[in-house]
Amino acid sequence: MGLPHSFLKEPMGILLDILYALVLLVASPVVLFKMATSRRWRAGMWQRFGGVPRRRGEKPCVWIHAVSVGEVNTIRTLVEMMGKEFPGWEVLISTTTDAGQAIARERYGAARCFFLPLDFTFVLWRAFSRIRPDALVLVELEVWPNLLRAARRRGVPVVIINGRMREEKVRRYHEMRWLLRPALEADSPNLFCVQNEQYRDRFIRAGFPAGKVRVTGTMKYDAVQTAVPAEKVAQLRDALGLKPGERAWVAGCTWPGEEEICLSVHRLLQREAPELRLVIAPRHVERAGEVEQVIERAGFPCQRRSGGLGANERTVGTQNFPKESSVSPPAPPPAPPICLLDSVGELGYVYSFAEFVFVGKSLTVHGGHNMLEPAALGVVPVFGPLTENFLDEAQLLLSAQAALRVRDEQELGAALLRLLREPQSRADMARRGREAILRNRGASRRHLDILRELIEKAS
User: What is the SS3 assignment for 375?
Assistant: First the structure.
C-alpha cells in the first residue's frame, strides 16, 4: 500500500527525507561496515524501517519512546502504575539503543518493545499504521521532525515527560523551531511536561508555547529502587567472587580514564582495609575487555561477572624458580581480584551492598550519571565536577549533605578514606539521601493524570 496523498502534499517532510537520504548515502560505507562486523548495528533493522509489531486490538494505546537505559529506568514507575490502574490500556515502548531495548524487553516483554523507526515519512507512516497509538510519549526531549508531523496528521497528541533542556540548546531549538512546527502549534493537543521552573523558562525561550509547558517534576525520584531482592544480591556477589562478609565499594558507570583513577585510589584504601574489594561497572558493557586489560596492567587480577579470571589471576603461583634450589620460596598471597560487572541491568544490585559509590562520567568526561540510584539504596555517592546532565539531582543530594563532590583523583581518595574511617557519618549521609529522594516523589502520578485526560478525550 502506498503513502496517502496527504503525506505527499507536505514539502517539508519530503525535503527532510531527501536530506536524511543524502546523509545515509554519505555514511553508507561506514554503516555497512559496522553492520557487517557488529550484531549491535544489525539489531532491529526491520523495525527501524517501520516493521514494528502490528497491534490487533482496539484498546487505547500509549506509545512511549525511551532512548536508552536511563530513560527506560525512568519510566518504570509510570508503566507499572498504568498496568495497575488502567489494565485496559496497551503500552508499547520503543528505544533507540540496543542496551535500552534489552532492558525494556527484559522488564516488559519483547511483544511490547521495539526499536524507534527512522525519521523518514514513509517509514513513520507504516509504523503509525501498525501501532495506531492514541498518545505518543517522548521521554525528556527526544523529538524528531517527521515523527511529530506523523503524529499531527494522525491526530495523535504528543506529550514530552520529564522534559529538560540545557541552556546552550535554547538558541539552537529557537533557530530550528520551524522544523518542530507541528508540535508547537497553539491548537495542537500536545503538552510539554518539564522537571522544574528553570527548564520551563528554557522551553518557552526556545519557542515552545507557554500555555502548553507544565512543571510536573522529575520521575527519576519515583523510578529509583529503594530495595532489591536479597536472593538476587547473593547470586550476584557469588558471581563476582565476593565471599560472605567481604566489603566492597563500587565505581559505577565509568568512562575511559576513570578506571585507572579508581584503581589507584583502591590501592590507597587497601592500606586501611586490606579486605576491601572494588567492583568496576563500565557504562558501556562492550568496553569490558578493554577495562579488564586496564585492571591487569595495574597489577590486579580480574574477576568478571560473566565468569572467568583474567590472565594475572590464572598465572598466580606458577613462577619458575631455579632447578638447583631444593626449597621453593613461599609465593606471596595473591591480591584479591577486582570485580568487573560486564552485564546489563544489574548495577542497582551491586550498589545495594556497596560501602560507598563513585559515580562515573564526572571526572574525565562531561555529563555525569544518575547519583540517585545509590542514594535511594542507602549508599553515599561520590562524584566529580562534570555533572551537567544531573545538576538538579546532584544539588539535591549535596544540599542534604548526602553526597560528596570531588575535583580530582587526590580529592576522591581523601573523600573515600573519610567515608571508610567514619561509618557513623557515612550512615547519617545515607539516611539523609534516602529521605531527600522520598520527599521528591510524585511526578509519575502527575504524568499519569495527564495521559488519562488525553486518552479520555481521544476516546
Answer: helix
